[in-house]
Specification:
4 helices; 6-stranded antiparallel barrel; mainly beta; about 230 residues; disordered N terminus; Elongation Factor Tu (Ef-tu), domain 3
């Protein structure tokens, strides 16, 4: 446990095309809630070695600890340097390949959330910041003051998405309204539409997706019990 964020010891699980894969050891995992607290602007991109991004935002960035974890449109990245108005993070080739981060360019805006601290309100749901896959925007329809958005999930992740369950899209905690095969819909209220990057999404775009942590462990338990009984 640290003072700059809530961490759980244990392991991360990377999901393969069949829905399962080996656990990846991790000394600590930052936890988030999917409640965006700032919008960041990509100031610079450096692709020498690991991709390094400098992000500007309205936070007092010189107060952010080196090594702190921040979710960037749903991707947990570690702060490696900072000044008064910006901070720098680095992303490995794996992160670049499996998320939208590899497409980010100077001037792009992203959703930001600091890691949970003890005593913080859990406003959304438990989010690890480890992207499971990319969801494709299928349709966007305005309904009164809200927007109904349909997405298509990767087939290997579809079974983890349930009606009225939670899902994280580009770092935003949302409730699943309906499920239709590998497609699902969410309703984005006007506030979230305007204060996050969701208001800028377009049909055909892909967004970072993280399945509900509870669904992950429930599925793992069911799989384990089924194989133990064979």
């Amino acid at each position: 446990m640290t003072t700059d964020g809530l961490f759980l010891t244990g392991a991360m699980v990377k999901i393969d095309k069949d829905g399962w894969c080996a656990e990846i050891p991790s000394e600590r995992t930052a936890m988030f809630t999917g409640i965006v607290t700032a919008i960041g602007t990509i100031i610079s991109v450096d692709d020498r070695g690991d991709r390094k991004l400098r992000v500007g935002c309205t936070w007092p960035c010189d107060e952010i600890a080196i090594g702190a974890s921040i979710a960037h449109s749903g991707i947990c990245l570690t702060v490696i340097s900072r000044d008064a108005h910006s901070f720098e993070v680095a992303a490995s080739a794996e992160t670049v390949n499996v998320t939208t981060l590899g497409q980010w360019r100077k001037g792009d805006i992203i959703n930001l959330e600091r890691a949970l601290c003890l005593g913080d309100e859990l406003g959304g749901h438990m989010v690890s910041g480890h992207v499971d896959g990319l969801a494709l925007v299928k349709s966007i329809m305005r309904i009164d003051d809200s927007h109904e958005v349909w997405f298509e999930a990767p087939v290997e992740l579809a079974g983890f998405i349930a009606q009225k369950g939670s899902i994280t899209l580009d770092g935003v905690s949302l409730t699943v309204n309906a499920v239709r095969g590998s497609e699902f819909s969410v309703n984005v209220i006007e506030h979230s539409w305007h204060v996050t990057t969701l208001g800028r999404i377009t049909v055909g775009q892909r967004v970072n997706m993280e399945i509900d942590m509870l669904a992950r462990y429930a599925a793992r338990l069911a799989y384990y019990r089924c194989n133990q009984s064979v």
